[in-house]
Amino acid sequence: xNIFRTKSISELLRGAEKKGLKKTLGxxxxxxxxxxxxxGTGIFVLTGVAxxxxxxxxLVLSFVLSGLACTFAALAYAELAAMVPIAxxxxxxxxxxxxxxxxxxxxxxxVLEYSVGSSAVAAGWSGYVVGLLKSGGIELSKAYTAxxxxxxxxxxxxxxxxxxxxxxxxRGTQESATxxxxxxxxxxxxxxxxxxxxxxxxxxxxxxxxxxxxFSGVASGAAIIFFAYIGFDAVATAAEECRNPNxxxxxxxxxxxxxxxxxYIIVAGVLTGVVPYSELNNxxxxxxxxxxxxxxxxxxxxxxxxxxxxxxxxxVLMYGQSRIFFAMSRDGLIPASISKVHPKYGTPHIITIxxxxxxxxxxxxxxxxIIAELTNIGTLFAFAVASIGVLVLRYTKPDLERPFRCPAxxxxxxxAVISCGYLMYNxxxxxxxxxxxxxxxxxxxxxxxxxxHSVLNKVDKAA
Length: 463
What we know:
The structure is a single chain. The protein is mostly helical. It is 71% helix and 0% strand. The radius of gyration is 21 Å and the shape is globular.
């Protein structure tokens, strides 16, 4: 059997028409969906860790480096998303360009990316909420706010938010997008409050030394904070629910990335300018910085905005996770029964609920720790492979309609592969070990189940 068989774009489009999702999203919805996922954990949590442990004030360069890698990949993604407006993002594009086995391993790693990422974000949401309640005089028992490894029974708030958002996603994409819009406005307001209060207090002496860990620290910082940029991939997973995907997807992908990169660079510069970078290794660096310069009320407002920000990240990650599962199950690589679309809400309700339960269990009982870095390596791998796919399709299918064309694709696509590969190289050794172990498990699952049950395999047998 040909494990490198590809699925034609016309086949993908026909499959989506037969078993498609409700089309409710426009360009603004997609841009805000991307901002909803990009502005959150990265800006409210990872900025402090990356500055204190890896890059120092040169964190601004880390964001530039990560932003450049994402820009190259985003341009390639935009071409693919407009050509193949189907749920599944990099998994679907790879199926059309490079074949089934490559698509499977990309999808398998995207599943890990979204599952681990969602669980880590749910745990972060719990931490902020518990901290905010504690500052208001309400202290929750550690037994129900910590995982067993940390002396608790279960992280109940993390489980609650994961299950609540999964039910919201079942109710409908438009309803979820509406909540996302409200929360995005709140968290952007929180970022603006931080910049307005902290900006005038910047002390340039805190930027010296600017690069305390050298350029290797800047590169390591860029690899760690890449988690902050995966939102534009989630925009691509929404392709099948766009009213006008050919126009709206490129706008949503590139627009959200540009807005967020600018905000990240400004916040990183101000954050490391108001307090020494060595003090920022905590779970709430932005709120901490405001308290350090005497703005306790501003700190509370930003903390509330951070909760909203993290909520939107989790909402979009869980949304993307369910859509990738949906695409893989529709292709027969995982059981097709879970890709059923709800007759009333027009959403893949079974896989959304299953994914929500899995995320809740991981967040409630497992210490995330270093495994969250798997999110980065899985995403970088998917971006690199998708960028190769753009080049392949340019040469193998030159006559396909391309509503959006990646400019200078012969330069941009290789730069995307090189920059993503460079960031992967700078991730810790343990992350690479886990990545290979997970990929080996994926190959086993494919050869035991996916290869035989693939829709394309059934077509080949019938022929």
